[in-house]
Amino acid sequence: MNVLEVSPLFFLGAVLSFIGVDLLYEWLVEIRHKLIMSEYIVLVITFIAINIVGMDWGICVGILVAIVDFVVATAQHSSLSQSFKRSKAVWSAERRKILESYAYNERSPRILSFDLKGSIL
What we know:
Blueprint: H1 3-6, H2 9-30, H3 37-53, H4 55-75, E1 80-83, H5 93-103, E2 113-116
Helix pairs in contact: 3-4
């Protein structure tokens, strides 16, 4: 027995419409406070592109917009910064003095340390 032959089609259509509207509301409206603005704009552009040009090309447009958003966001922030850290090794007083005067010299240091933050490509 086929379920579609017995059940009224308007009932199945109403259930599918309800599920679609509920998912649309959840994915486009309720998610807004959980995303940053650029990610939300990528989401909305992807949704609009899917409705205009179809599923496959809409996803491709969304991927391209996400790539552009990522490049713009990472280009605005420097991920490299100098940090002033010293060796935590235990040195004798004489060797520590040599290390401080030669390696960690403020005018021309021989040892530099850097912190990498954010997206590193």
